[in-house]
Design brief:
The chain is α/β, with parallel strands linked by helices and about 270 residues long. Helix content is about 45%, strand content about 10%. It has ten helices and six strands; from the N terminus they run E-H-E-H-E-H-H-E-H-H-E-H-E-H-H-H. It has a six-stranded parallel beta sheet, covered by helices on one side. The model has no long low-confidence stretch (mean pLDDT about 95).
Length: about 270
Amino acid sequence: MNADDLGANTQRSHGIFQCFEFGIVTNATLLPNATDSDRAAKQAREKKLPTGLHLNLSEHAPLSKRDTINSLIEGNGMFLAGERMRDALDAGTVRKEHLEREIRAQMDWFLESVGSPTHVDSHYHIHTHPMVAAALIPVLERYGVRFVRIPLEEPLPPFRTIVSDAQLEKVKKINASSLAAKDLYSAWGIASSNHFRGLTLAGNASLKNLRHIIGRLPEGITELMVHPGSACTEGTPFDLDPQRQTELRMLTDASIVEELQERDIRLASYGDL
């Protein structure tokens, strides 16, 4: 159970730590450049929460000097937002040395603030883009990071979860990118979980849908991506979405722990692999 976006803000971090202390979230990935990143890093160390790097090239300000990575940023100095970064990568307007510089800066911040990451994933799954993967792999090799997330969610459609056609199309695109990325990373000995879930749970969180996922897990190691958070009064639309609190309640419901135990499903972190 990996909670994304640790450090996004104090409320999101609080929700993730609640789920960890409850015993259901076993891993989190930490944003290196958000409003609560430094405090959340300190708490993760103190609480001994297994933590990976949530590489962020699609939101907030970079850690590198802006004039040294200008192909990654908008006129306001912030990263190209969301899909605009992927579009720029596809168009070839992003310079490889800029990617390498910012990835190193984020990894260096993590190593100094937390220690060695359990694994690496990314905001908007941008690390599955071949150009980002090519820049990230040497950094993973240098620091001995052995695992990345491969957000390949199959089968589709999901288990009785109500998912819009637009969301399914988005998931299919992520799956296609993930298939190619899996080959790139595995060629360098960088592994992932056997299976992945969470793309179709996002926006559709409920106890019922989580139980459907748990009840149909394949054999092997599955990463389940979650995004819990306490109530926010400010932040991005994603932060303010009531689904963050729905996920928090869902993940701290005692019936989920009981179901995991009944099905003999062991909770683990990337650090255990």
